[in-house]
Design a protein that fits this description.
Elements: E1 2-3, E2 18-20, E3 23-25, E4 29-31, H1 44-57, E5 62-68, H2 89-101, E6 106-110, E7 123-124, E8 138-139, H3 142-161, E9 166-171, H4 176-181, H5 196-199, H6 201-214, E10 219-227, H7 236-249, E11 253-258, H8 278-284, E12 292-294, H9 301-309, E13 315-317, H10 320-324, H11 328-333, H12 351-355, E14 384-388, H13 392-403, E15 407-411, H14 421-424, H15 433-447, E16 450-452, H16 459-464, E17 469-472, E18 476-478, E19 491-493, H17 494-498, E20 507-511, H18 515-524, H19 535-541, E21 566-570, H20 586-595, E22 599-601, E23 605-609, E24 613-618, E25 621-626, E26 629-632, E27 636-638, H21 641-648, E28 653-655, H22 667-680
Parallel strand pairs: 4-5, 4-13, 5-6, 6-9, 7-8, 9-10, 10-11, 11-12, 12-13, 14-15, 14-17, 15-16, 17-28, 19-26, 20-21, 20-26, 21-22
Antiparallel strand pairs: 1-2, 2-3, 18-27, 23-24, 24-25
């Protein structure tokens, strides 16, 4: 391993090149593995090739693909991706050729799901069902273990034939290899279970066999679970022992794995502090001589530089930041970090989509994984366009349309852009939404959008200006339910609380348990500094043992700071509260409110609001919740009056975002809708 120093620019450590075997890696950024759903889509490898090529053109040092199974049992689902046969090599060539033409390096991740497989052919070291899948795995026989090791090797050889510069062996996140390592999932009594030396044989033999089969120059990254975050996980001594054994077996680099998928600790959600787990990579560094990669919630070049300068690792792995902005590294190298479209770790369009069996994309970058379908080419004819409303939909449309050469004027009644994004960023744990507003402010400057703040417009004004096109993105207003006493002085809506900062008493009833209701409850149950901005407090609340004295790095009990208020969260529906929250983040919100002892009531009938409080009928019993305030979070109504008036006068107008359809505060749909309209107009 040879390191060269490049002291130019704002980020000298990040842009310091390094040589791994005979491979010259131009910087210390790795685009981490992320499944996209394109792997299984018809024609998906053509789309994947362009997706990865754009990231290589954007300057990332090394790309790691989404997980590819080494055999059928290891597939994520019955139709999941696999690389085992010669006829499968050709489609992977499309990816490697595209990346290499762009001057990049790429490794393929080999992922065997083990008991996490979402199909009835799942296998594992022991027949123990995972809590996150409905299928109980079959325990591998001795012959099955040997065959699985051969399948890993065969997969690596096929990857090499397909032109990959290396492979990443997925040994973390609770997948098959990780299941062999810990006694929680490995109850075997033979040579592959029992003692830790036996349990770690499986990954060591895989790495050793891959090195023998692929030769010296092939990059082998091993994804080591450094922090399981589950009971009966590995202890620190076992992590160090395995790391040393993997190095001796022939690995080129060791990547950091944090948490099993079944762990009840957030690891990559927006509420997790930035660079929250680099301490564990740093802890391993004195024991390992090959390069170490750290990961999780590193989303800016400043944070990446800080981690590298502090010596926590040799590389930083960022997956979703390159989903959000393929040119992340180019912009950083040019000294323009303010132009980076920052990943806000919302999970809404990436991980949630994967778990919903949809194609991955990105809330802040709707072009992600649509690189062959969504284009913003120069318009054949430049038009004058008015956009009313500088919320997510209006900002998206305005900047993409201006990028295409249209003359865009953006009207906003408030004194700043962002719309509902300015509501979201008030919630503890959602501070990253400030980055999206910062990005759009920069985009407005770069694309030449004429921004008119503090300007309310109506249909007559817009008609008088003779615009070629008018885009209505006026958003939503809170919906006020028909409850007797809803105009009582005790009643506030979510804007009163989050935007106008009205005083709220010590006992509160929140009506509506959708995303906004949960956000308001989160806001009301925290005081002072957000846990996201205080990593030590965050760790204690989520049971992360930073001293690593406990197995799995998991404390016995959380340390919860008491809520400053008593909060009731209610909904009319009989279903579980938060049922429709994000697939991968809903449990975090529910657990956070449970920790704050929020009383959750489903199936509530709202009878009236008076001086006493909120009167409800619940489970056929009438009761009064004696509260200081009742906060309405019962959905929204679209603000579309201007659009209706324009249409009545036969004026060409388009409506997007919440103004078009009010469904919670859906920035993902709003930004995509704005982008798609801008690509066509």
């Amino acid at each position: 391993m040879r390191v060269e120093k490049d002291n130019g620019g704002l980020y000298p450590a990040l842009f310091s090149p390094i040589k791994i075997h005979d491979h010259y890696i131009k910087n210390r950024a790795i685009m981490g593995s992320m499944h996209t759903g394109l792997e299984e889509l018809k024609g998906g490898f053509d789309k994947l090739a362009r997706y990865y090529q754009e990231r290589a053109e954007g300057g990332v040092g090394l790309i790691v693909t989404g997980g590819i199974a080494p055999n059928f049992a290891g597939r994520i689902s019955p139709m999941g991706s696999q690389l085992s046969f010669f006829w499968q090599v050709k489609k992977h060539r499309k990816i490697t050729d595209a990346v290499h033409q762009a001057g990049g390096k790429i490794a393929m991740q080999i992922l065997h799901t083990g008991r996490y497989a979402y199909h009835p052919f799942a296998v594992a070291p022991s027949s123990i069902k995972a809590p996150i899948t409905p299928f109980k795995p079959r325990a591998l026989s001795l012959r099955g273990i040997r065959k699985t090791i051969k399948d890993f090797v065969n997969c690596a050889k096929k990857a090499q034939q397909a032109g990959y510069d290396g492979v990443e062996v997925m040994g973390s996140e609770g997948y098959l290899i990780n299941q062999f390592i810990v006694s929680k999932t490995n109850k075997r009594k033979d040579d592959w279970g029992g003692s830790f030396e036996n349990r770690m044989r499986f990954p060591v033999e895989i790495v050793k066999a891959i090195r023998e089969a692929t030769g010296h120059n092939f990059i082998i990254i091993y994804r080591l679970s450094m922090l399981d975050l589950v009971d009966q996980g590995s202890n620190w001594e076992e992590v160090v022992s395995l790391g040393k054994a993997i190095e001796s077996a022939g690995a080129s680099m060791i990547n950091t794995g944090i948490g099993w998928h079944e762990a009840r600790v957030p690891t990559i959600a927006t509420s997790v502090p930035r660079a929250n787990f680099t301490w564990v990579t740093e802890k391993l560094k004195p024991h390992i001589s090959i390069p170490l990669v750290t990961t999780n919630r590193i989303n800016t070049p400043e944070m990446a530089e800080q981690v590298l300068q502090a010596g926590h690792s040799d590389f930083v792995s960022m997956a979703r930041p390159f989903l959000a902005d393929p040119d992340f590294m180019q912009k950083a190298k040019a000294g323009k970090p303010e132009s980076i479209n920052t990943c806000i770790a919302c999970n809404q369009a990436c991980l949630d989509h994967i778990f919903e069996h949809k194609r991955v994309t990105c809330l802040v970058n709707p072009r992600a994984c649509y690189e062959t379908e969504l284009f913003f080419n120069k318009a054949q004819k430049a038009k004058t366009i008015a956009v009313v409303g500088a919320g997510p939909a209006g900002l998206s449309f305005a900047t993409y349309a201006a990028q295409r050469g249209h003359q865009v004027t953006l009207y906003e009644a408030a004194d700043k852009i962002g719309g509902q994004l300015n509501i979201a960023n008030q919630i503890p744990g959602k501070e990253e939404f400030y980055e999206t507003i910062r990005y759009y402010n920069q985009r407005i400057k770069e694309t030449g959008v004429k921004l008119k703040l503090n300007q309310t417009v109506d249909s007559e004004f817009l008609i008088q200006q003779s615009f070629d096109e008018i885009i209505i993105a006026t958003g939503v207003e809170p919906r006020i339910p028909d409850i007797p006493g809803v105009t009582h002085s005790k009643v506030l809506n979510y804007l009163d609380v989050l935007k106008y900062k009205k005083d709220v008493g010590q006992t509160v009833a929140v009506i509506g348990a959708g995303g906004i209701g949960f956000d308001v409850a989160e806001y009301l149950t925290h005081t002072g500094e957000s846990l996201t901005l205080n990593p030590d407090k965050w760790a204690k609340e989520w049971r992360v043992d930073k001293d690593y004295t406990q197995r799995g790095g998991l404390l016995k009990k959380p340390e919860i700071e008491a809520s400053p208020r008593k909060v009731y969260l209610l909904q009319r529906k009989e279903t579980k509260l938060g049922k429709d929250l994000g697939k991968t983040t809903g449990w975090i919100h529910r657990m956070s409110l449970k920790n704050k002892q929020v009383t959750q009531i489903a199936g509530a009938e709202y009878l009236k609001i008076d001086d006493q409080g909120l009167h409800i009928n619940h489970e056929n019993q009438t009761q009064c919740l004696v509260v200081d305030h009742v906060i309405i979070c019962a959905g929204q109504n679209s603000l579309k009056q201007i659009y209706i008036e324009l249409k009545e006068k036969n004026i060409s107008a388009h409506i997007i975002g919440g103004a078009d359809f009010a469904a919670e505060l859906d920035a993902k749909r709003a930004i995509r809708q704005g982008a798609e309209l801008a690509s066509m107009i």
